[in-house]
Design goal:
The protein is 10% helix and 47% strand. The chain is mainly β. Strands 1-5-4-3-2-6-7-8 form an eight-stranded antiparallel beta barrel. The longest helix is centred in the middle third of the chain and has 10 residues.
């Protein structure tokens, strides 16, 4: 079984951008709220279909498959709930780990989240200076949740 172990953090400032190059991602969700996440993503010139199961804490089942770009674009247009999630994704190396920093656009503009994938839940890692508070357990920050309740609609 494939397992994703991921922690999410808000980003404090723009210092992470120094020397970083991003790639545009567009993703959507099929049948949200079913307890299983089915995601379609276009990243650059590649298409992906991902299925994520329920989990415990920061761990959950994840299966991801590359699919034809044309199919991915068609599914985004015809099968996915709107609005789609559009973001620039940056890969940042820090102390032996690769952080994925997502700078959201469109309905979720202003939100920047850094994620780190781990080999096991107790794995130790050093936080970069630009990391703010952890939001791993807060469902508002799940990409699938940002479709139903975009960041621009949030109230403090």
């Amino acid at each position: 079984m494939a397992t994703e172990i991921e922690r999410k953090f808000l980003v404090r400032d723009d210092s992470w951008k120094k020397g970083a190059t991003g790639e545009r991602c567009c993703q959507g969700y099929i049948c949200p709220g079913s307890g299983v996440t089915v995601r379609v993503r276009v990243r650059g010139r590649l298409g992906f279909l991902t299925v994520k199961g329920g989990g415990s804490g920061i761990s959950r089942q994840e299966y991801e498959y590359e699919i034809p770009l044309r199919d991915a674009r068609e599914m985004l247009e015809t099968l996915c709930v709107k609005p789609l999630i559009v973001k620039n994704r940056y890969l940042i190396r820090h102390e032996g780990f690769v952080w994925e920093v997502d700078e959201f656009l469109g309905e979720n503009s202003g939100l920047v989240i850094a994620e780190i994938e781990l080999e096991h839940p107790e794995q130790v890692f050093l936080l970069p200076d630009w990391i703010d508070r952890e939001v791993s357990g807060d469902p508002r920050y799940y990409n699938a949740s940002l479709v139903a309740n975009p960041y621009l609609n949030w109230r403090d």
